[in-house]
Amino acid sequence: MARPGLEVIRKKELIHATISVIYETGLAEPTLAAISARAGLSSGGMINHYFKNKQDLMESTMRELAGSFLGEVAFNVSSAKTPIDKINAVIDANFASSQCTPEAVTAWLWFWARIPTNTAYADIESATENHVINELKRALEDIVSEHEVDDLAEGIMAIMYGLWLRFAFDSKKINVEVARRITKDLTHSRLRTYI
Amino acid sequence: MARPGLEVIRKKELIHATISVIYETGLAEPTLAAISARAGLSSGGMINHYFKNKQDLMESTMRELAGSFLGEVAFNVSSAKTPIDKINAVIDANFASSQCTPEAVTAWLWFWARIPTNTAYADIESATENHVINELKRALEDIVSEHEVDDLAEGIMAIMYGLWLRFAFDSKKINVEVARRITKDLTHSRLRTYI
Amino acid sequence: MARPGLEVIRKKELIHATISVIYETGLAEPTLAAISARAGLSSGGMINHYFKNKQDLMESTMRELAGSFLGEVAFNVSSAKTPIDKINAVIDANFASSQCTPEAVTAWLWFWARIPTNTAYADIESATENHVINELKRALEDIVSEHEVDDLAEGIMAIMYGLWLRFAFDSKKINVEVARRITKDLTHSRLRTYI
Amino acid sequence: MARPGLEVIRKKELIHATISVIYETGLAEPTLAAISARAGLSSGGMINHYFKNKQDLMESTMRELAGSFLGEVAFNVSSAKTPIDKINAVIDANFASSQCTPEAVTAWLWFWARIPTNTAYADIESATENHVINELKRALEDIVSEHEVDDLAEGIMAIMYGLWLRFAFDSKKINVEVARRITKDLTHSRLRTYI
DNA sequence: GATGAATGAGGGTTCATTCAT
DNA sequence: TATGAATGAACCCTCATTCAT
Q: Is the CB of D53 less than 7 A from some atom of nucleic acid strand F?
C-alpha cells in the first residue's frame, strides 16, 4: 500500500531535523542518531529507508536550503520592474527573514566549510550562486558599462555573503535591517552616477 | 640538556601541519594521526608533549593564523599617511598573498564554521576582527560623518570577508588582484563625495 | 518488534562477563574488549547499547554482587527465630557458597581497592554493609548491653571481612567451612556469658 | 665517583612517592609520570635508573610496606614477656599509628587487590602474613590446646585484616583505638577460659 | 646522573551502517 | 514501514618505555 506522499514528508522532516541539529549541537558533526531523535525516529537505520546514506541526507539538506533561497530570490525578482528594482529584490531576498534564521545561517556556514573538500557541496553552492549572480548581471547590464558588470556583480555578492558570514558569527551585532541597509548603501553609491 | 628553541619549533611545525591537513584532507575533521604524519612524527601521542589536547592545537593554529593576519595589517598600516591610505592598507593586508593561500583561506573557513558552537574560536575571531574594524573606524572618523562610521566599517569588512569566502569556494574565479580592485572600487565609490 | 527481556538478559551477561574477566585476567583492569569477548559480543561498542560507559558497567556489576549478597542475607535471616539464630544466619549468608566463589571474592576485592578513590563504589559498599551491620545490631540489642552493641557488630563484620579477604588471597588455605567455624567460634565465645 | 648512598636514598624517595600517589590520585593506577613528579624528578626515564621497570618499583614499594610492618611487629614482640603479652604486641603493632596512615592503608589495599592475578604480590603478602601468623601461633601454643591453634591464629589475623579493610573504606568510622579495643576484646574473650 | 623528546601499543568511546525481526 | 541490536572501524588520549643528549 504505497502512500507516495509519506516518503516526501518524512524526507522533509529529516532534512529539517538535520538543520536543527547542526544549529543546536555543540558538536562539529551532526550525528544520525541526533538527527533521528530530533525527527522522532528510531536511532538506527530508519534514515536509510529515505536516504542512501548520511552524505545523501546532507546533500539533500543543502539542496533544500538552496531551493528555499532561490525560491525567495525568484519570488522577489518576479515583481521587480526596473533593473534597480531587481537588484534590490535580490538583496531583499538574501536578507529575507526566512533565510536569516540562526538555523539557516549556521547550516549554510556548515556546508560552506566543507566545500573545499567536497565536490557535491561545491556543485550545489556553485549552481546556487550562479543563479543569483546571473540575476544581478542581467540587471547590471542595463545600468553600467559592460566591462563593469562582472566586478560589480561579484562585489554585490561579496557584500551579501560577507554580511551573512558576520551574521553567522554573531547574530546580535548585525541584524537583517542593518544588513539590508549596508548592502544597498554600498551598491547604490556605486551605481549613483548611472541613476 | 635543554634545547629551549625546540619546543617552539615543533609547535610551529605541528601548527603548519594542521593547516596543511585541513587543506588537503577529504575529511571534515583533521585527525591527529594525519597531522602527526604530516609533521613527520609518530602517529601516537607526540602531540601531547606540545599541546594539551587536540582542541589546544586547533586553537593555537587559529591564533597563529590570526597573529599572522594582524601582523600583516599592522605592518601595512604603519606606513600609511592619510586616512584613505590606512583604509587601503587594511584592504591590501587582507588580500596579501601570504593571507590568501588556499591553505590559509581553507583553514579560516574551517574555523569560521565552528564559531557558532565553539566559544574559543568565537573569541579569537572576535578579537581579530575587532582589531581590524577599529583600524577602519579610526580612519573613517576622519573622513565621514560620525553616524556613518559604524555602517561603513562593517560594510568594508563584509566586502573583504565575502570575497575571502568566495575565494575559499573557488580560488580560480577570483584572484587577489581582482579582490583588491573590487573592494577598493566599492569603498572609494562610497567615500567619493568626501574626498 | 520489541523483545523486552533481551536487554535485561544482555545486561546480566555482560555483568557476569565482567566478573569473569576480573577473575581471569592477569591485568589490573578488565578491558571492555575482554569483557565483550567473554560475553560473545563484538569487541567494539556493543556495551554502549546497554551501559552508558565502562564506569556504568562496573557499578552495575558491583550492585549485582551487592544485591546477590543482600538477598542471601535476607533469605537466611528470614527463617531465623532467636537473636542468636539471626547472627548465625548472617554469618552463614556471608560464607554461602554462592558468595564465596573465587570469581565473586576476587571481584569484591577489586571493587574494595577502588573505594578510596571512587565514591560510587564507596556508596554501594556503604549501603551494603549498613544493611548487614544493622541486621547484626538488631539481634545484638536483644543479647548484650547497649554500649557493647556497636563494637560487637563491628567486630563480627571485621571477622567476616577479614576471612573473606584472606580467602581472596588464597582460596586453598581457608575454605567456607573453616571460615564459618572460626567466625562462629569467636562470636559465640564473646556472647557466652549472655547465653 | 660512586656515591653508594644516593641510589638507596632515591629509591626510598620513589617508593614513598609511589605510596603518596596511590593515596592521592583519583585514578586506579598510579602513573610513573605522577610518581616522578611527586619525587621531584623528570617525567621520563629517571625511574629506570633505579628500578628495572614499573613492576619492579611496585614490588619494591610493597616490600617496603611489608618490611616496615614486620619491623613494627618484631619491635613490639621483642619486649613481650608472656604469651598473652606477645599476642597483644602483635595486635598493637598491627594498629600502630605508623601502619595506619591513610596512605599506608590505601597502598596495602591497592596491592591486596592485585594479589589474585600477580604472584609477586601474592608472595610478598604470603611471606609477610606468615611471619605474623607464626608469631601468633608460637604464643597460642603455650595457651590453648594444640588443635585450636590454627583456627585461633587465623581468627585473630582475620579480625585485624578485617578492621584494616574497614579502616581503609572509611577512616572516620573506625579509629586505631577502637580497632585495638575490638580486636583485644574478641581475642581475650576467646582465651578467657585459659587465663 | 639526569632530562625530556619520541615512540607505539592499547584503552574507552563514538558512530555510520547493516540486518534480523 | 520501522525498530534497535550488533558490528567494526576510527578517533583521541594515556602511558610505559627507550634513547640521544
A: yes
D48: nt with nearest C1' to CA = F17
DSSP A41-65: --SSTTHHHHSSSHHHHHHHHHHHH
* C147 reaches D (C-beta below 8 A): no
On strand F, nucleotides with any atom < 7 Å from a protein CB are 1-21
Under a CB-based contact definition with an 8 Å cutoff, are residues A120 and A59 in contact? yes
**Count of C-beta atoms within a 10 Å radius of residue C85:** 14
Task: For residue range C131-142, list pLDDT tens digits in order.
Answer: 999 999 999 999
Rounded distance, CA D41 to CA D46, Å?
7
Nearest nt to the CA of B42 via C1' is E7
DSSP for D158-171? HHHHHHHHHHHH-T
- How many cross-chain Cβ pairs, A to B, lie less than 8 Å apart? 141
Chain D CB within 8 Å of residue C195 CB:
no
Which residue from A34, A27, A75, A88 is spatially nearest to A57, judged by alpha carbons? A34
Which grid coordinates are listed for C2? 520489541
Chains that touch B (3 or more CB pairs under 8 A): A
D177-191: b or e for each residue (b if 16 or more CB lie within 10 Å)? ebbbebbbbbbebbb
Query: Which grid cell is C97?
Result: 557458597
Whether chain B has a CB inside 8 Å of the CB on A182: the answer is yes
Q: Which nucleotide is nearest to B31 (CA to C1')?
A: F11
Give residues with Cβ within 8 angstroms of C156, minimum separation 6: C87, C90, C91, C136, C183, C187
Using one digit for the tens of pLDDT, what is the confidence trace for D101-148?
Answer: 989 999 999 999 999 889 999 999 999 999 999 999 999 999 999 999
| Burial track A156-190 (b if 16+ CB lie within 10 A, e otherwise) | bbbbbbbbbbbbbbebeebebebbbebbbbbbebb
Query: What cell numbers appear for A74 in the block?
Result: 525568484
Residues with Cβ within 8 Å of residue B171, at least 6 apart in sequence = B102, B105
H-only helix segments in chain D: 4-24, 32-38, 47-50, 54-78, 83-94, 102-114, 119-141, 146-169, 176-191
Asked whether the predicted pLDDT for residue A44 surpasses 80, the reply is no
CA dist A57 and A37 (Å) reads 15
Nearest by Cα to A108 from A87, A89, A128, A86? A128
- Listed as own residue / partner, the contacts of B48-54 with beta carbons closer than 8 Å and 24 or more positions apart are B49/B10, B50/B7, B50/B10, B50/B11, B50/B14, B51/B11, B51/B14
Please tell me which residue of chain D has the smallest CA distance to C103.
Answer: D116
The residue type found at A70 is: L
pTM above 0.70?
yes
